């Protein structure tokens, strides 16, 4: 990762106070300073570890009500420079201060607003985070315990990250922000100040969750039970959709926890929520299931007098489509492809016993 610009400012507000002020302290930070790099690495890593990110976009339908959106668009026009970056920081701070003074944010407190513009792989990012102090213990010269105050980078109270590269490309989901882990409860003052919404097309969220489920099975030695697991995930989505309820990533993680062997459960890679919430899949903590996408993964059950079939609809295709099960409309027959070794042996054994 390559840090390009860094700025730190302070928002002052006590809980139950209706006034938020911007401190005169702070400003641009020399990115070549060793502590600046340490701060950058710690903050980026802390954000990357969060598994309750909400993915979304800017509220384009009401962009006039959210000045940060137009300010951000001005910032990304042409080459980025520090002055444009600092102007954007000032504008964002003003919006955050105004949002903190809303009645709904009365119990919220201020903190240190950290702004980072950086690149990672082929992407450019803008990360805005609000962190607070914590009290720790240190030893003085005589090894006496003494109280110290330090910034708590592990607990990101609020943060949002914009993938500038994908935003310019017009991708559906280019923005993520931190919410709480409780269902239906997202602290809105921070995301509202920046014009963030959790609106990702439900079709994309649903298909990305199913794709993440399949990939997770393949990467965690669950391939033999993949069909069963994915079927459980789809059944959950179908049930939530039928009850007109949102789908919740922790609920889906619980489905996977029921299948993961105890010896694997403690491995960080065994947490499905973090896997699906990552940059590759961007499945939000909460989303609306998409009906037609769910239906595409539901099962087809049919039978004749002497046999019956039970398979996922996504396995079915027309002849020469390389689907697992192909239907030949000319001969009204089925062709089953890519049989497992176990199935092949069962079929051979059955034929030998019948001869």
From TrEMBL:
<dbReference type="GO" id="GO:0003727">
    <property type="term" value="F:single-stranded RNA binding"/>
</dbReference>
<dbReference type="InterPro" id="IPR007358">
    <property type="entry name" value="Nucleoid_associated_NdpA"/>
</dbReference>
<dbReference type="GO" id="GO:0043590">
    <property type="term" value="C:bacterial nucleoid"/>
</dbReference>
<comment type="similarity">
    <text>Belongs to the YejK family.</text>
</comment>
<keyword id="KW-0963">Cytoplasm</keyword>
<protein>
    <submittedName>
        <fullName>Nucleoid-associated protein</fullName>
    </submittedName>
</protein>
<dbReference type="GO" id="GO:0003690">
    <property type="term" value="F:double-stranded DNA binding"/>
</dbReference>
<dbReference type="Pfam" id="PF04245">
    <property type="entry name" value="NA37"/>
</dbReference>
């Amino acid at each position: 990762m390559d840090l390009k610009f860094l700025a730190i400012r302070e928002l002052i507000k006590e809980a139950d106070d209706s006034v938020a002020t911007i401190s005169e302290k702070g400003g641009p930070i020399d990115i070549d300073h060793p502590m600046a790099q340490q701060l950058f690495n710690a903050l980026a890593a802390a954000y990357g570890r969060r598994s309750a990110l909400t993915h979304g976009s800017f509220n384009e339908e009401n962009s006039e009500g959210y000045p940060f959106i137009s300010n951000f668009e001005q910032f990304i026009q042409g080459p980025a420079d520090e002055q444009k970056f600092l102007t954007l920081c000032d504008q964002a701070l003003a919006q955050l201060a105004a949002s903190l003074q809303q009645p709904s944010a009365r119990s919220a407190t201020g903190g240190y607003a950290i702004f980072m513009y950086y690149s990672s792989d082929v992407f450019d990012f803008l990360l805005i985070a609000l962190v607070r102090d914590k009290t720790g213990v240190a030893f003085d010269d005589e090894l006496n315990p003494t109280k110290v105050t330090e910034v708590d980078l592990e607990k990101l109270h609020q943060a949002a990250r914009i993938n500038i590269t994908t935003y310019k490309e017009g991708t559906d989901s280019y923005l993520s922000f931190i919410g709480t882990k409780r269902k239906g409860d997202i602290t809105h003052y921070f995301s509202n100040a920046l014009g963030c919404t959790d609106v990702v097309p439900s079709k994309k969220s649903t298909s990305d969750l199913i794709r993440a489920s399949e990939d997770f099975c393949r990467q965690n030695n669950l391939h033999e039970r993949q069909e069963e697991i994915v079927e459980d995930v789809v059944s959950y989505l179908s049930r939530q959709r039928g009850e007109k309820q949102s789908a919740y990533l922790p609920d889906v993680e619980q489905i996977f926890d029921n299948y993961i062997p105890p010896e694997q459960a403690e491995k960080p890679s065994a947490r499905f929520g973090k896997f699906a919430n990552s940059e590759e899949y961007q499945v939000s903590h909460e989303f609306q299931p998409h009906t037609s996408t769910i239906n595409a993964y539901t099962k087809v059950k049919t039978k004749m007098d002497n046999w019956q079939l039970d398979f996922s609809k996504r396995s079915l295709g027309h002849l020469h489509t390389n689907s697992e099960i192909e239907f030949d409309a000319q001969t009204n027959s089925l062709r089953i492809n890519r049989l497992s070794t176990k199935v092949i042996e069962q079929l051979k054994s059955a034929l030998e016993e019948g001869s």
